[in-house]
């Protein structure tokens, strides 16, 4: 009898997992700014609606996510895309997903993914002219998991590791946890007892590119099965990655623990297919991967042999043979963890989701209506022997350096409901995330220990507050545009501010201007434009993120400073005719025919990353930093949520929502988000079923 019941349950599970969503069970409500609020009977219905609405707004970037999961980026983008196809097979992610999909993902979540995939296929069928590559469709749920696992693995250290190896810069980028950098973010939570209104406060301010595959898209997802979450996600994302529901909310910032290791192998000079391990020569495991690369419109098949060793996959170049060992690409459950975080009703349920440790990186800053706040610096961090030297690259070539486990959730940096009444992170070390007396103070090999200017500013501005915070206080802190006096920036960039005008008379006026600059990045600042352009030339010189200058061991050299100032002066005089130009006249938030002066600079709390956009006019366009921002205040009555995005809800230039949030974003204004259907329908721009 028991076996028959089990069989029936399995059959029912399989039927549910392949059940087709009826679009009439899904309603999309577009608010006045075009943001989609999706209502479905089931979670799978809601996922279907999310995929369809997002496709209406940005099918282009969703298709790139699909192609990454199908190994078709080389067929579409040529040599620039084939690296993703190589990564998918190099890390064996496609085979892992095929083997583990039904074992590792719950039947319920598989139905969510399958509803999402169905909507993408339905949209493609209804809009064939928008398809970029015919072979991208139909897409399957497994291929969506391929894509998400590849993307999150690259974020969790592998992307930087591959870049470091390819450019022979391992020691510079990854030599220790004092020299590791990447994308930035801010997040802040304040307990009710430190707020003047007695509510719990949460700031979500993750920094990403503001256009493209990894730009934030805002959506509100609701089902009759308990899903009611609003926040940001990336193209191809089947749920909210950062956001809030009626009970709680969370933000993420990138953390930079050592999430894996790089090994420089010793190769047998008599046999290139052998490497030394524990004093013996061992044979590599060999397999062949097949790729396709578009060259001048022709798709050329390419075969490549890939080696593996005891540590993991091996990458070979002219600088040597390098093995990678990162736990991120061995777990396909990251998006299911986020799904459970979306649906959590309280701190306990949220913590249980976090303890999956399937999301392989990120600091998480949390707040809820019960007054709880938390910072957890999580991810898949190897449990390393503290007696060994783990400086990259590892050259010992012994089994002592082959770790097999990750640190448990309880061993990771964690601050929960501190007496100081607040937690924050701006990609800085989790050793400094609240008041001095409340910080986490333990250690493990690979712990991130470095600090950025943004972390310094948040720590100082939060710490100097006496008494309760008002929301105006927290806005002032979030939109702070300064480099900290006598801080990391001043130390690392000292050469730029200590130049002898007599030694460099041709740039004496620029040196004077930098020396009188108040280190403020307000759009009206008449000295900050020169500093911003100098920063950009320095970033180009190191061929890496600007933040790398702030945390690497060596300070900025006088030679580099002089060269960057010369170039910056030349550019401003050629394009603007003077050095006396406001930052906002040089640095702009631009999309379509809209252009606004942009506040902020690189690595200040009001973070603004730019790229030279118009060489003739000397205009820099904002490309990243602050983008999607959400503020939530929680009370026993529920959540009061507001948000803003850098551009608008749509990536379609013909849509009225392509640029309609830009002015509010520039003015540091927000819009209120409603979670109840009645209010949303009463003010909706449009209410419809997918496909109508």
Quick overview:
With 692 residues, the protein is of the alpha+beta class. The longest helix has 28 residues, at 43-70.
Any key phrases for this structure?
692 residues; alpha+beta; Penicillin amidase (Acylase) alpha subunit, N-terminal domain; ten-stranded mixed sheet; six-stranded antiparallel sheet; 21 helices; disordered N terminus
Q: What can be said about the biggest beta sheet?
A: 10 strands, mixed
The CATH architecture term of the domain at 488-625 is Orthogonal Bundle
Strand order of the largest sheet: 19-18-17-8-7-6-5-2-1-28
Average pLDDT reading? 94
Helix segment tally: 21
The first-to-last residue Cα distance is 48 Å
- Tell me roughly what share of residues is in helical segments: 25-40%
- CATH topology type of the domain at 488-625: Penicillin amidase (Acylase) alpha subunit, N-terminal domain
CATH class of the domain at 488-625: Mainly Alpha
The whole-angstrom Rg is 25 Å
In terms of DSSP E residues, the strand content is 15-25%
- Spans of at least 5 consecutive residues whose pLDDT stays below 50 are 1-17, 176-181
Shape type: globular
How many strands? 28
Coarse structural class: alpha+beta
CATH superfamily of the domain at 488-625: Aminohydrolase, alpha-helical knob region
């Amino acid at each position: 009898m028991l076996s028959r019941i089990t069989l029936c349950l399995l059959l029912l599970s399989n039927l549910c997992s392949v059940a087709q969503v009826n679009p009439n069970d899904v309603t999309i409500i577009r608010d006045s700014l075009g943001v989609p609020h999706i209502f479905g009977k089931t979670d799978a219905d809601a996922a279907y609606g999310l995929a369809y609405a997002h496709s209406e707004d940005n099918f282009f970037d969703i298709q790139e996510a699909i192609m990454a999961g199908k190994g078709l980026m080389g067929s579409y983008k040529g040599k620039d895309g084939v690296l993703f196809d190589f990564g998918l097979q190099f890390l064996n992610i496609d085979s892992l997903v095929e083997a583990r999909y039904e074992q590792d993902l719950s039947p319920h979540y598989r139905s969510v993914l399958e509803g999402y995939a169905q909507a993408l296929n339905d949209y493609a069928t209804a809009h064939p002219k928008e398809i970029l590559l015919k072979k991208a469709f139909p897409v399957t749920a497994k291929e969506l998991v391929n894509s998400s696992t590849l993307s999150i693995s690259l974020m969790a250290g592998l992307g930087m590791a591959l870049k470091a190896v390819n450019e022979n810069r391992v020691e510079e980028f990854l030599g220790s946890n004092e020299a590791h950098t990447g994308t930035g973010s801010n997040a802040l939570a304040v307990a009710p007892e430190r707020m003047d209104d007695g509510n719990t406060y949460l700031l979500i301010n993750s920094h990403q590119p503001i256009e493209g595959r990894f730009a934030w898209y805002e959506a509100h997802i609701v089902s009759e099965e308990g899903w009611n979450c609003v926040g940001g996600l990336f193209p191809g994302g089947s749920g909210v990655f950062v956001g809030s529901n009626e009970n709680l909310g969370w933000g993420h910032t990138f953390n930079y623990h050592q999430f894996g290791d790089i090994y420089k192998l010793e190769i047998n000079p008599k046999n290139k297919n052998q490497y030394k391990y524990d004093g013996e020569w061992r044979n590599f495991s060999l397999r062949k991967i097949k790729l396709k690369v578009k060259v001048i419109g022709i798709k050329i098949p390419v075969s490549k042999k890939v080696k593996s060793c005891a540590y993991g996959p091996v990458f070979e170049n002219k600088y040597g043979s390098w093995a990678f060992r990162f736990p991120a690409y061995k777990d396909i459950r990251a998006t299911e963890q986020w799904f459970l975080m979306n649906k959590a009703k309280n701190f306990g349920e949220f913590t249980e989701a976090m303890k999956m440790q399937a999301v392989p990186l990120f600091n998480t800053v949390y707040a809820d209506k019960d007054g709880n706040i938390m910072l957890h610096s999580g991810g898949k961090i190897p449990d390393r022997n503290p007696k060994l030297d783990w400086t990259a690259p590892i050259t010992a070539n012994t089994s002592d350096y082959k770790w097999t486990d990750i640190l448990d959730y309880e061993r990771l940096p964690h601050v929960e409901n501190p007496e100081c009444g607040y937690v924050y992170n701006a990609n800085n070390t989790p050793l400094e995330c609240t008041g001095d007396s409340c910080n986490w103070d333990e250690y493990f090999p690979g712990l991130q220990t470095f600090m950025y200017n943004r972390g310094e500013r948040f720590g100082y501005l939060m710490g100097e507050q006496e008494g309760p915070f008002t929301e105006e206080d927290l806005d002032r802190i979030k939109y702070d545009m300064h480099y900290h006096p006598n801080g990391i920036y001043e130390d690392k960039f000292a050469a730029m501010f200590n130049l002898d005008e007599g030694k460099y008379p041709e740039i004496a006026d620029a040196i004077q201007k930098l020396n009188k600059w108040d280190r403020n990045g307000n759009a009206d600042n008449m000295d900050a434009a020169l500093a911003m352009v100098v920063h950009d030339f320095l970033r180009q010189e190191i061929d890496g993120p600007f933040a790398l200058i702030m945390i690497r061991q060596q300070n900025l050299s006088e030679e580099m400073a002089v060269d960057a100032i010369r170039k910056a002066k030349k550019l401003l005089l050629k394009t603007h005719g003077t050095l006396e130009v406001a930052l906002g006249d040089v640095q702009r938030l631009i999309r379509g025919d809209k252009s606004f002066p942009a506040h902020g600079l690189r690595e200040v709390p009001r973070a603004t990353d730019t790229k030279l956009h118009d060489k003739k006019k000397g205009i820099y366009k904002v490309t990243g930093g602050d983008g999607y921002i959400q503020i939530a205040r929680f009370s026993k009555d529920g959540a009061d949520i507001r948000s803003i995005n850098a551009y608008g809800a749509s990536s379609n230039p013909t849509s009225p929502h392509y640029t309609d949030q830009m002015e509010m974003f520039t003015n540091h204004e927000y819009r209120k988000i409603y979670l109840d259907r009645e209010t949303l329908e009463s003010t909706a721009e449009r209410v419809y079923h997918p496909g109508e």
